[in-house]
Amino acid sequence: MLVGLCMGLTGAGGGVLAVPVLVVGMGIGVQEAVPLALLAIGSAATLGSLDGLRRGLVRYRATLLMAAAGVLTAALGTVLARSMPTDALMLLLCLVLIVSAVRQWPRQQTSTGRISEGMSFKPCRIDPDDGRFRWTPRCFFHIGAIGASAGLFTGLLGVGGGFLLVPFMRRYSELGMHSVVATSLAVIALVSLISVGHSVFIGTPVPGSGWIFILACATGMAMGRVLAPGLSPRHLQAGFAVLALAVAAGLATRSLIHLFT
Predict the structure, then answer these.
(1) Is residue 113 part of a domain?
(2) How many domains does the chain contain in total?
C-alpha cells in the first residue's frame, strides 16, 4: 500500500520503492520481484491514468510515442537484468533511489529562476490556439527519447520510470504539472503491463502471493489521489525523499554485507 500511496501522492516516482519492498519485505528474489513490481505499478498507474483521462489531462499522442519507445527498450532492460548479478542490480537500484530522492527534494525558487524558465525555449511547445503540442522533429525526438530512457529502467529494475518521465517532461515540454503526472501514469501503465507479459513469455514467473501486494498498491494509489490535493506538495516531496534515502541505505548495506561475506 505504501508504494501505491507514494505514487498517488507524489506522482509516478513512488514506483521506485516497489522492488525494495518486495525484496526486503517479502523475501522475493530480484528477478522474480521485477515483473511483480511492474504488474503492481502498472495496475496502480492504470487507476491514476483513468482519473487523468476523465479530467482531460492525458496527452494521447505523447503517451503513445513514449510507450512505443519504452516497450522496445524495456525488453532490452529485461534481457540485461537476467544477465546481471543480483547485488549489482541492487546497488544500481540504490543509485536510482538516491537520484529520485535528490530530484524530489523541494527547492526554493527565486522569481528570477521562474522567469528564466518561462523564457527558455523548450523543444515541445504548446500551440496557444488549440492547446496541443507542436509536433516538430525536435519535439518528436525528445518525447521518444524520454520514453526510451524510462523504458530501459523499467525493464532493468522494475521501477516504472516515473522518476525520469516527470522531471524530463517538465524540463523539455510546456505541459503543466497535472498533465505531466497524468500522462506519465498512462505511459507507465502501458509499458509496465506489456513488460510483464514479455517477462512471463521468456520464463520469469509471477509469484501467486504477490496478488496481495498488487491489490495493496492499487488501494494505496486510490487513497493517494484522493489525499494529494489537500496536502502540501513540499511536505510530500520531502517525505518521499527521506523515505527513498532510508530505503537506499538499507538496500546498500544489505548488498554490501552479502558481497563481502
Answers:
(1) no
(2) 1
